[in-house]
Fold these 2 entries.
Entry 1:
Amino acid sequence: MTSTSENRMPVDPELLGFANEFKRRREAAGLNQAQLARLVSVQRSYISHVERGRTKCRRDFTMRVDRALNANGELVESWDELVEKIKSTKYPTYFVNYPKVEASSALLRGYQTMLVDGLFQTEAYARFLLPHEEDFQSRMRRQEVLKRIPPPVISVVMDESVLYREVDCPKTMRDQLEYLIELSHRDRINIQIAPMGYYRGIRTSFAIATLPDQRQIVYTQKAYGGETTTKPLEVELTVESFVTLQAEAHCVKETRALIRRVIDERWT
């Protein structure tokens, strides 16, 4: 049984991303932890530690697991990405841990104060915000999570001012808001608009990723960029903030009507 003190230890979100990929591939191969452990000559507890992000396994071990799971080198590639981190990704330093976790999450929640959430941005909207091609392509890769089968449940609240803040030109805004309406009709996507106003304790944009095993990782936007955390108290406070915003926001149906009205009155 895992000790309480171990459960409370902070875990590197980058390790959690690899851990979830490791576990997903084991389960897809139809093996339990003990069976895989026997195949690669380790204790079951070591497999458990890897899958909970409590240890960074060696590359030669990952190669043995990759062969045992018939992963065709893809698990080793994930390990290489884990080790390379900033060098092998194009995300800003402060954001480097979150996209990998985001891609393997079961539930994604977020609040945006200034701009349309990155997962929901059209190409034109994103390209205007991200003039460097590498940054733009990174944004597009993040959106591939929407095509996952099944996709994660995604619930996003955006400040009403996002609908009125011009990015690029009226056509870009019109197309972007039309796309939000389209997305809002998809299964497992919930988009809500919070009326402009003051919400106690809420000062910035944030995102919450929940992994299939219910571990949660928070990304919070800061003046210098942002930070990622798994600290229980910080996660708890962020989740409470999101619940408050959801309660104050327009429901999904009202949000669609509001977006349509803004398109007609401002961007047409």
Entry 2:
Amino acid sequence: MKPASHHSRVHGGLLAAALTIWTACGPQVAQEEPPRQESRAALTASDCFDWPMGGVQGSETVPGYNVRVMQNYANRGGSSWYSNRAHSGVDLALNTGSTAGAPVYAVADGVVRCVVNANYPGWVVVIEHTLGSGAKVYTQYGHMNAPSVATGATVTRGQQIATLFNQSTNSHLHFEVRDWLYWKGATSNCYGPGYAEGTYQPEQQGWMDPVDYYYQHRPAFPALAVSDISQAVRSAPNRSSTTLTTIPAGTRLTVDSVTPAQDGQDDWWYRVKYDGVNWGYMAGYWDSGWGGDLYMTEPRRSCTSSVT
């Protein structure tokens, strides 16, 4: 799982487009207006997913803070790279500090279904999550030191389950979201191949994009979010929209929704109250091709309660 060069941690621009939002609808303009209210059905604790790594901001560990994506979901690296098969998850690493030995956390409430030293390299944990709808999804955590949880254990969102295995400059967490526990039903293999087979796209074999899944499974808004870089507030959720102001790194702001970019980029954008009155957009996930950055992240909060 190939490391990528880390691009500059300041922002540039591209194209504007219409958008779809994951909370209630309404005009997406940077102006004074009240925050939108959450319109989804009531969430259960297992419906809310956090990042499995994080960093300290202020006095708490914030999921996703100081974390980057070394390799995106569905990447294909050419015939000499896993026979050009598509990556089944995301590879996560820290921006600063040692990734090797960094804590790994359960992303949601669930039950540990598999703990195995698979020479992945390192250990693998698979957690089963039962959503409010009754559907089950599974998260996999790969390249770890011996976990602190056992098969059958109940875990809660944010509980540490292990630390990361040392792979020198390639140390990372291979993280997956999928709809199966055992690869092709073989109970001897809960960890899978790490890449889809042949020309299949990962979703054709039961995987889901962990970045998209995270943003589609947020706790109730409004909430607080913090940027780990100094970044522009924009008038619309795309890279080329007007810059309204610049917010210093470490500033916590009220956010009322998160939306995917629809300008040809695989970015996600938060709608933020940037001066206590007016609204604009700041990048949550900034895609750079092979990998990307978690520029803005949310301190952990209750799944069912908003924070202002």
